[in-house]
Predict the structure.
Amino acid sequence: MATRRQKKQMEFAAPKKQQRSIGGTIMLALLLFLMGSFMAFPLIYAISSAFKPPEEFFLFPPPIFPNNPTGENFRQLGLVISNMWISFERYLFNSLFISLTSTLAYLLIATLAAYPLAKHEFPGKKTMNETITLALMFTPAITAIPQYIILANLHLVDNPLGVLLPTLASTTGVFLCVQYMEILPNAVLESGRIDGAGEGRIWWSIVMPNIKPVIFTMMIFQFQAVWNTTGANIIYNEAWKTLPAAMGQVATAGIARAGVGSAAAIILMIPPILVFVISQSNVMETMAHSGIKD
Amino acid sequence: MKIKREHSLGRRIRKSTASYVMVLPFMACFVIFTVLPVLAAIALSFTNFNMLEAPTFAFIDNYTRLFQDDIFLIAFKNTMILAFLCGPLSYIFSFLMAWVINEMPKKLRVFMTIVFYAPSVSANVYFIWTYLFSGDSYGIVNAALLQLGIIREPVLWLTDPNYNMAIVIVVQLWLSLGISFLSFIAGFQGVDASQYEAGAIDGIKNRFQELWYITIPNMKSMMLFGAVMQIASSFSCGQVSQDLTGGYQSVNYSTMTMLNYITDYGSVRYEMGYACCIGVVLFILIVLSKKLIFRLLKW
């Protein structure tokens, strides 16, 4: 973190980086192009497969781009889903409902918890922070089985809450948030206290507006994580199945379904990418302030 | 909220009511859905439990069984290969790409960030690799190699134990530009520009020296965060090997990781005690590796 004095100096000295050699730039651009192709090719192939008619999957050599692009796969996907027990709209609603509710609820409880964890002194604070850091290393595989037993005891199996509540226990967001809040100046919070604001009020009207970038970051991570949760082992009632679970049932492997599968994957990618693009500029700002301190 | 030392614990707790109320909703979820399950898993690892009958205490039988279980040793070896090969490679790849992207003009930067980040956004788009590496001649890779005359007949990339691990590694790398990648990108943009000026005066000649002497020391906290996330995710990978190459069903268990082994015992054989025992060992491995790596790098 730059001190105030350094910042002052920066304003006067025009920030200028080391002279860049043109050769170096070309080399790096080439590297970026190569790696970019490696990253982009499967994505491009997935998109082109979504528009391929089924018979073109059995051509040799396999065309990378469809010879006769068609929307047939998307129609097929719609047809299959409309023949399922509930409508596409219902699956979409279920997924959006669970993802958005979880994201919103998580943003509230995570920032509410992160504020005292970063800025208050109270017995047990150190233990809580250490447990949260340790929990970054838990893998869901270890907790899945006991979690199911707990959900069963709470009568939350086959209930959308059974998918939703465990997602609120994520520690990445709280961890990031605590890191970010630690650098908020105490003077601002103190001035609020002098004005007679309670801690809840300080959290809502002073802390929250100052951590907008980290809120956007948490939004991306949380939405993405919940959106990708199928809840397949919790929800058996078709009426509460999520879109990824329904799409998964349609798009199970097999080359004959390759086109439909690709179409499903492309559709499923759209919402998280939209959330990412919308909050992208805010994220960049946040990440610059996050991380583990010594 | 400075609290003086001489206050008794009870008094300090009473004075902090507001703090406890605020952490309560999250801590409740965290304890119920993460801490309790972890403790339960540790407890179950000392029992035999099949989900139908009550668990019976088995002392350390599960743990001693692990060391005699040849298949577990294969899973352990594969997990280690993935963790120690894929982990550092993903980390370096994320860092290198974040750096190169940062050296590019702004518009290209935003576009490339999305391209690099997109694969890790989706839960299942990696299935497209099964068509790229499909074992018949309709697979892109086989078709290209056949046409170039490098191979005479299609290679069973995903089932042949000689190749399938390499493919899992490639796909893991493809998926690796996630949270740590984003934090690196932001880290590069957060370095104080005046330091580069000072560096230029001190005789830094090119961008590689600049990266080494100025940028990296300034990004320590992001690099630590990235490292923790990377270590945890590389040890617990298994989804890709399960979906692409069969995981616990792969030929000679060639790509089975510890995570796949847990799935096998947990959701197929219903030997929960043993599955939890493997999970606990995996967790201990992650925590120890993090400690070891941080000590080696003197962080």
In short: The mean pLDDT of chain B is 85. The CA atoms of residues 42 and 280 of chain B lie 6 Å apart.
